[in-house]
User: Fold this.
Amino acid sequence: MQMLDIAIIMGYLVLVIVIGFWISRRASQNLDTYFLGGKSVHWSLLGISNATSMNDLSGTMWLVFVVFVYGMKGLWMPWVWVTFNQVFYMVYLSIWIRRSNVLTGAEWISTRFGNGIGGNLCHISVVFFAFISVIGFLSYSFQGVGKFAAVFLPWDWSPHMYAIILMSITTLYVILGGMYSVVLTDIVQFIIMTITSVVIGAIAIMRISPEMLRAAVPEGWLNLWFGWRLNLDWSAVIPSVNSQIARDGYELFTIFIGMVLFKGILVSMAGPGPNYDMQRVLAARDAKSAALMSGVVNFAILPRWIMTPAIAIIALVFFRPQLLAMGSNIDFEQILPYVIAEFLPVGLIGLFIAGLLAAFMSTFDSTVNAGAAYLVNDIYKKYFRPQAPEKRYIAISYGVSIALVALGIGFGLMSSSIHRITEWLVFGLYGGYTAPNVLKWHWWRLNAFGYFGGMIGGVVAALFLPLLFPSLSAVNSFPLILAIGTLASISISLATPPDPEEVLISFYKSVRPWGFWQPIHVKAVAQDPNFVNDSCFRRDMVNVGVGIIWQLALRLIPVYLVLRLFGNLAAWLVVALLTSWFLKTNWYDRLQKD
Assistant:
């Protein structure tokens, strides 16, 4: 890198720290302003911030890999992360959650199960899950940013040293500015990422014709659809890629996508985990704003779908000789350095690397902010110092944020694989979370003890199954972990008394969920003859189904533009317009009316 590139990167790092100091006084008024921005941030900015937080560095590196290896079929693979959950949140779940008007997901759980012994156990189980998941995501970030920085930054330091320095800088502005700092820096990061994505996309469009691309990929690479098997043979192009596909174990692609879809629907119906996604919903001004915020996420994530295919096809066309020379040990992490070094001019290199650092920081800062909220509000304030001054809570938040980062670094040092952490998070840990959290919305008889048993049983299974059965893949472990959580939730609930009637009626009347609530509905109407549950399962599920197609169309449009496949682009543009019209009439207009 030239001095201009280094200056741009350093300038960006200084800017985010300055933002933290500048916003610190406003953010430190109380816990509500620190963790939720005083519920005053506009829904569009919250949506952009939430999308930017999802645009993490490790995930970007992984997406470049899956598009390179699997082509258009690789666009189904982000469903591993349940990317279509934002459609569920947009249609109905964000509205249900925001009606609670609380600070964290653990505090929200008290509106469902009360504050008795069982309710407190539920509360603690959610905090426990939040703590485990935050540490997992921080260790995931540690691995990703260290490997990235060691390749791209000009100083001869180890990956771990780079990761510790960058995580420390990010932690500084997070603890100073809280949610305000997170949102404001996320907007800056979104602008940088959008600029860099458009630039690299334009380079790919100008340099690579459809004919050049077809000559560089195997038959079927450009085909979005698939049969029972993957049927993608790299033998005539880069033979060793076939070995990578075999190691991934995705040859029976229909079974893999079926499992991912099954998991994704259940995890989406469970609602957001106790992380930054939940915090953005609770930070919205009202229920309508929360739904619109989740809708914006589906648009704000689109720059990633310009950059990712652009990097992949540049490498396919121009980096092929180097990849062939690697033989059977292809290092896919060399793709990004090659594209940056060969195709970006001075100045844009610095901006591009700053954008990728921004992708790391946006996920990291949101995770730290959400994790600290649970430990301070739901443990320290609730059980130790409920009447402490607000300044003390803010001071404790600083210390908790630093401690979380230190633990994330510690666990990151113990793991050498981004892929292993990713699989454990999305299949193992969330397998334990899913069952009790689907039931809590839709079955009145799930009580506090059943929820607690399902959460603890599922999370313990996720922690120990890999130790007991090392050969069991993370993908195949999900149904087993789900079954353990479901069995524990239902059996314990039926073996113990229902939750207090007044708690169930209050929850039902405020949230108005659909599902198996008839006994509570009857009692709610008996109390208030004017009460009407306006939620509609059939309408919501139709909107979700159309919304998933709409989301897919939005992501395919920039991909086909970069690939210069204008016929496919036109077809999916029509799909996007039709589904947008349907959602406007069947979701947005109804949202406005309500």
